[in-house]
Fold these 3 entries.
Entry 1:
Amino acid sequence: MKEFLQKLKVMPITGYILFLFTGLVIFFFGAFLVILLRTKNPSKIIMPDLIGKNYIEVHNELVRLGFKVHIQNKRFLDKNDGSILSQSITPGKSTERGSKITLVVNIGVDRVTIPDLRGQSLSNARANLEKVLSGETYVSIPLGEITYIEAKEGQFPETVIDQIPKPGKETTTREKIYLLVTEPKGYKNPVDNFKSLQGKPVSFATEKLKRKNLSWKISDIVSTKSKSESGLVESIEKKDNRYNLKVFFFPVSQRIESGYESISYKIDAPNEYKVVEVAEDQKGKKEEEILPLAFYAKNEELKLVYYRNGNSKLTIYAKDGDKEKSYSFESDL
């Protein structure tokens, strides 16, 4: 110890400075290493559940947490605009700040609930479609084609008796509404003049033919890339006292609560066949013959396009009542 003190006494001033500088370097180097290690190991966070939330509402929070967000868009009419449909990081999973996340977000326009226009005069129905509540504002729903049909006893002229889409459907202002309306007074439409049914919903076109006691079949289902064309009559022609309809159909990847469906079934034995639907919605079950008895030859295809509202089961029956084939259609949501 005495020797060390003696050496300090004789150490020049430059030695003291060098000693102090070395200590400071070691201190700051250690502090730098601590900061560097913390930077390389960001703190963990628990991934929140974003599904169903509006992206605009959660955007700032995701930025605050340091997420690098990638957006993919899909479009579903039954989902709200901006609603997050899925996320690439599972909710509840521990992840690092600054992680990349992909969100699938629904894009859309003004959402509306289809009003019930049945029983209204055509003029009132038109006026009501111009003022439909969407959130806190009023918007209009575009009117598609009107199909006029012969009135039954007790029905008034120019009165809405059916509509597509059905009342209560959640949709957007891009979807047109089609009306089935009783003929006005003095309406003239020769029995054989059915070219006007082109562009009309197949359900309304066939109802018009049934009221005239005319035989019909769907001769062809025409694939279309336009969803707005699905279920509309592409063409109609008369052959051998029967009306043959070609109908557009847009196949969907995901079924919502209502929409057009199609079936095609090759007949094994020549006979008369019909199709009966059992539909189930919030009001209960309803059974209806949607394709009347008609003769089909062997290997001929029985084809049908119809509008489903709720869950639906179709059954093909032979003339003697034997079940030939059944199909079930349900919402995927």
Entry 2:
Amino acid sequence: MSQWIECVPNFSEGCDEQVLNEIARVIRAIPEVYLLEVDPGAGAHRTVFTFAGKKNAMAEAAFQAIRVASEKIDMTQHRGVHPRIGAIDVCPFIPLEGSTIDDCIELACQVGHRIGTELGLPGYFYGAAASRLERKNLTSCRSGQYEGISQKLKNPDWLPDFGPAVFHAKSGMTIVGAREFLIAYNLNLNTDSVSIAKKIAAKVRSQGKLPSANRLPALKAIGWDIPEYGIAQVSTNVISFPQNSLFDVWLAVSKEAEKLGVQVTGSELVGLVPLKALLDAGQSFAKQQEQEAVETEFELIALATTSLGLGELRPFDPQKKILDYVLNQAIATSL
């Protein structure tokens, strides 16, 4: 059986199409690797690339993309609402059909050490590839962000896993790792108040100090604003979508928003989403809305798309956003 692996690097560039096109070009140049999506965000000044392929080719594709980003992106000029630690903020490998998390750890280590030796950039391993317990959490690795790197590298507990323990002003640091699939899911509010968005996020994320009836397991959440749309969002990472469905997150955020006098008006998916996640959401909405006739795959996806408001900020095309569809199409096109 072939070993399929996904890689979802996040680059700190959301506006310059020439830079993004060059990163895309070097990924496409690697045989047996399929570029599935490029999802830029101007407000976050960040772009999520999604590509997948055979294990033996994925490390090279990831490294070449990282090499171009390190050459083209200048962190001294970077401004954006999303937390980040460098030009190549994070590069996770995710197991797909026929592969395991151990395969992804192997690739993460290969790529990380090449970043350190060939590009001279420092960084950390996170997730399943973490070298120590406190580095499993991406937020911990990113703490202090780009602006705090110099101070962070003075701490013996935060010396890099690869590369020199020296601040690289142009590229910052990078975080490479292995993890299971997560869904980046942002919910739109009918307010531009970041304070309200942060209060809601604090009540739904899995780790929080405040008591909350709507706190969800395996969920990360922060509040921020999206100036290009004039709204605030609750930005979440659904760490385990079988444990938390998109419906669960939508419902929890909606309840907390209502308590503060605002509403969830829609939402967006950043990157690709597994087919099962939308089918599960569709089934939950069908039950909530007592729509017993909604049964087919097409109907469930349509109901989930409408109920979650996935097309509020920009058009949502299931054929371009569902991982299963996009990967199958990419493979069919290459044959």
Entry 3:
Amino acid sequence: MKKKIKLTVWMITISLLIAAVLFVLQQHSFSMTEQKIEIDTPQGQLTGTLVLPESYSGTVGLVVFVHGDGPVNDTYDDGYKPLWEKLASAGYASLSLNKPGIGGSSGNWLEQSMEDRAQETIYAINWAKALPMIDAQAIGLWGASQAGWVIPKIVKKVPDLAFSILVSPAIQWISQGQYNTRQEMILEGFSEKEIKKREDYNAQILLLLKEQASYESYLRIAQSDDLISKEKWGFFSKNYQSDASEDLKNFTTPVHLVLGGQDINVDVEETERIYREKIPKNLLSVFYLPDADHSMLSKKNASSPLRTYLTAVFFPRHIVVEQYLDDLVHFVSQF
């Protein structure tokens, strides 16, 4: 009798495990066609993914993705796929690259300036314009965070892009870093005295950057528990003066700004104010999500790494605030 009970328990357990695996596989099956691509450029080869609707006739529009900070691969570790699927449902293709040094792309993303990032995206746009299934008059950009310094440089050189979507973009590198440091420390419960001490230390680092100091000079004042790598120091040196304020005037086609009320990385009130000042009213639309953080995660997901992980595994289409995906589909459907 006991053996039968044990066997039954094992059979139920195995059945549940198989059902869970099949469920996860089904949740990660997206209604779109993905193609790995390679683009040759003067700086080397760029690799990435081109996503097409499962069925279409004639040509389709295209959204070219411009990543935020960090060693990002073409799928953002599959985080882009729910958005790609939504765009495909609206008749749009998506194109996303691996950053240099990631996923077979040549180079090192830490050696890039914002101008370099803009140029590599322009190579991708020109490559896509030659594809027979892409409508060259319906190519737009999507970019998050650091892309806010890249996209305005792209549109200056490629003014015929149909639209630009900017999610959680900052305005000025230095002030954004200061805002993020303070907000993170407040959230983690640091005292005002501790925050001020950190700000004073960061001010020393900023002074070194302004003096074009060597990495060795930085190491002489660096805190051992928070060391910046030599590569990252070079990246900061190239880009710490980034400021989108004047470049925002480059836009001549529609701009859709998406901001989250729970964003502690970027001062969204400052971002919205300056976008409204610099971009003509008839070109700018703003969508504000009170419950979303910098990455468009809901407050519940953002506050729990475990919840975020489980949602990404079992319900990937619900990892971001639902209205975010619907809003982007509504926006691109106008073109």
